[in-house]
Amino acid sequence: MNLIPQNKKILIIEDEFITASALNLLLGGMGFEIVGVEDTGEGAIKATEQLKPDIVLMDIVLNGEMNGITAATHIREQFNIPVIYLTGQADDSTIFQAIESEPFGYIIKPFEEKNLKTSIMMALYKHELDQKLMESERRYRAIAELAQDSIIIFDRDYSIAYLNSYAIQFFKKERIGKSKIELSDIFPQELVDQVQRSLDSILSEGRYQRITLQGKLDSDEFWLDTIFVPILSRTNNITQIIALSRDITIQVLFDKEMEKQGIIQIEKNMEQFQILNDEIRNPLAVIMSIISLHDDEESRIVLEQIDHINNLVSRLDHGWVESEKVRSFFIKHYGYGKLCQKDEHNM
Hints:
Residues 9-124 form the Response regulatory domain. One of its GO terms (biological process) is phosphorelay signal transduction system. This protein has a 5-stranded parallel β-sheet with strand order 2-1-3-4-5, sandwiched between helices. A 5-stranded antiparallel β-sheet has the order 7-6-10-9-8, sandwiched between helices. The chain is built from 11 helices and 10 strands. By secondary structure, the protein is α/β, with parallel strands linked by helices. The two termini are 76 Å apart. Mean pLDDT is 82; it is low at 336-347.
């Protein structure tokens, strides 16, 4: 910030000619550029639009029908230019009305040169900071609106200060005409308690939290991978909490389907093991009984081969047992036993 007043343009709105002339001379000597002098509220608004000053010095009592407070309100709302009141009015009623117009300063006549310059420089500095803050807010808001994830900002009382367009669309909410948005205005009822517990945890522990939110919208189940992050002030106090939620419903449903198909395949393999056992071991037993009646070299060779085949079948039996263990694990942890049985009947 350049604190040297050169090239900063000032518009003076003053109905007393002597005071206006003194201000013109005094401010010019400080290095400011005086772009105009007006004595009515209507003239102040028109001059502001045409001359585009950096700041306006406004008397409250002016010639014409419009007073300085009304003119200042128009200038702030239409042109976003800072206004400092320079007036002899110091009663509570006038000051209260002036405050409502959000001025950048209030100087009581007669004024001191040093106080005047300080007030102008402080107003210019504050306005510049406000502009940077507004630009930053617009920039981040634009990024949030373009995001393909839900972004929600919570106040400390759990009300919702902001939610982006994606969140409004995801939760199927139209424009909410309320100044204070509650959790229940956005989230399905089954999620309200989950969200509030996460907010409670962050406010008490001060650390981020990552959870999966699971709920239903119009009978359609959904899953959201959600991160809650505290927003800290300069003194490390939590002022708000921001939540970023990514829709992982397709991924969750895909994983569930893969787990289900894995169980079905395991059960098919177990059936094949059982069939193989019956179709091989039973004939082998008959062959062994017949060969055992002969005591010659060829019979002993055949019995050795039968014993080798029997060992292979025993290994298949062991594989069947291990598959049963895997099946039991899936049923215990994923609850697919009934589902698989149902699918088998449908095949």
